[in-house]
Design goal:
Two copies of one chain form a homodimer. The longest helix of chain A has 16 residues. In chain A, strand 1, helix 1 and strand 2 form a beta-alpha-beta unit. In chain A, the strands form two sheets. A six-stranded parallel sheet of chain A has the order 3-2-1-4-5-6. The first copy, chain A, folds into two domains: about 180 residues, Alpha-Beta Complex (inorganic pyrophosphatase (n-terminal core)); about 110 residues, DHHA2 domain (Diaminopimelate Epimerase, Chain A, domain 1, Roll). In chain A, helix 1 runs antiparallel to helix 4, helix 3 crosses helix 4 and helix 4 runs antiparallel to helix 5. Chain A has about 300 residues and is α/β, with parallel strands linked by helices. At the A-B interface, strand 5 and strand 6 of A face strand 5 and strand 6 of B.
Chain lengths: ~300, ~300
């Protein structure tokens, strides 16, 4: 049976590109039978990456069959994976997020988690010298993953290893890092095709803070004005998204990649309280500007307080 | 704060030697402040290893403090770890067992699990060229771990990597593998100092099979007669151990390392039923001989059925 390699349910560049890279390695270097699949429609940046490097869009699956061999990359959170994941035959996990518990395997398998900015950086290290045999498309996907997750090295999650490996890949591909990253970010910034509810769920994680259930959404963009001009309807949509998803509030952070700052939308008094308690600033109006804030993992989640 | 490195609550050779090896690496190569600790008294083989390589017995701790930095080796099972482990600051996990779920970390950390016979084999790979700097005691401990977990390469869990690394360590140390392994197994086989209840809990894992709670105990020995002559009192002790530990039955497998076979003690009709259903043999009397069976992980757990 073919091993299905996938990331999480909201395929961004890393969760689209890393399955492609790792399925190539499993098939062509380790001699296994593996293919990348997606758990949803790739976001606009991931779609740009596929197009740019001439990669086929992986098949989108909605669940996995019991006993089916799978390898999981870029998450270890059952909530971000197919409903039947623990009934599948999990053969490997490669990730760079905190361990949340909940995944179970039938026997000892290969698991690699490292505190790096990007899954593709870990995959590159695991591939060792075999990376030389990878086709351009695989290397291009891996470079795209690292530039995406590090916001071209601007994010505080960036490590020396992410940087060094991205530069090595770019050099071999003859790609200008800053120029290519700009193209990627422009693709990510074009969100005109998405509804408000889609925007709120596009890059979103559920967290419980002091008993309050939050949906913490991030939109990374080079053109924040394009999103902020939809602020009123986004605020309206937050109510129904929260209700449908069983959350108490939706926190939407619009990250300006170029200015290196985030704007939090503040739709009501409870979010105002959360924002003031978490970021120790007073909120005037319905937005809060957070200079230097770019990373949910490093700069938002660790400080969130429920007011 | 010093990082405490530990294995599971029933310290065998791997759960005693691997913390010593990894704490050496963290302190001397990575420049962190780490020390090995134990979660219980080492077994007789582990005690022999400490003595043979002039290693100090690590301090035994009963729990960990909230926020204390820890690194876990040789298990990822909260049931085999200190009660407060999820309140500690887990900094790393290195293991070769199936993922059971339940451990949680505050951020992304270093996790390495591989389907190899021994934790020390994984540690050796992680150390890379730096292993050359390890003192004899650390290398001796790592060799002991591999010989113990592979039963000197007789166990079906043994991989080519375990074997190659053990031979590399033995050669550098000038140790005759077979002769040294015999000494280790003789130390493990001397169980005269232990009560029946201690024997039943010495190398034991709890498993639930089809709703039946089993304590599956293994005693690896070169002198099975020494244990079998205590059979009647062991059978008696199984009742109280099961009752105290909340298990329905205790299954004791006496593994003859040299003959490469196991003897299961059958104290009652329910264990007889489990034995016959699991191993597809009929039981006469109060023991069942299982030729070739040496590994709980590979040959016992996967076939257990609740009758």
């Amino acid at each position: 049976m073919t091993i299905q390699v996938f990331g999480h349910k909201s395929p961004d560049t890393d969760s689209t590109g890393s399955p492609i890279a790792w399925a190539w390695y499993l098939s062509n270097i380790r001699g296994e039978d593996a293919k990348p699949v997606l758990l949803g429609e790739p976001n606009t940046e991931a779609a740009f990456m596929l197009e740019r490097w001439g990669l086929e869009k992986p098949e989108i699956i909605s669940d996995v069959e019991a006993g089916a061999p799978v390898v999981i990359v870029d998450t270890n959170n059952p909530a971000e994976l197919p409903a039947s994941v623990n009934k599948a035959d999990i053969r490997g996990i490669v990730d760079h997020h905190k361990l949340v518990g909940g995944l179970e395997t039938k026997g000892p398998i290969e698991i690699r988690v490292e505190p790096l900015a990007c899954t593709a950086t870990i995959l590159y290290k695991m591939m060792g010298d075999d990376i030389a045999q990878a086709p351009k498309g695989v290397k291009g996907a891996m470079l795209s993953c690292i530039l995406s997750d590090t916001l071209a090295f601007r994010s505080p999650t960036t490590t020396q290893e992410d940087k060094a490996i991205a530069h090595a890949l770019a050099e071999e591909l003859g790609v200008d890092v800053e120029g290519y990253a700009e193209e990627m970010f422009a693709a990510k910034s074009d969100v005109s095709a998405f509804s408000d509810a889609e925007l709120l769920r596009m890059d979103s994680k559920e967290y419980e803070v002091d008993g309050t259930k939050l949906r913490v959404s991030v939109l990374e963009t080079t053109t924040p004005a394009q999103i902020l001009e939809r602020k009123d309807s986004l605020k309206e949509s937050m109510k129904s998204v929260a209700a449908e998803d069983g959350a108490d509030e939706v926190l939407l952070f619009i990250v300006d990649i170029l200015k290196e700052e985030a704007t939090l939308i503040v739709p009501n008094e409870r979010v105002k309280g959360i924002a003031e308690a978490s970021f120790e600033k007073s909120v005037e109006g319905d937005t809060l500007l957070l200079p230097g804030v770019m990373s949910r993992k490093k700069q938002i989640m660790p400080v969130l307080k429920a007011a």
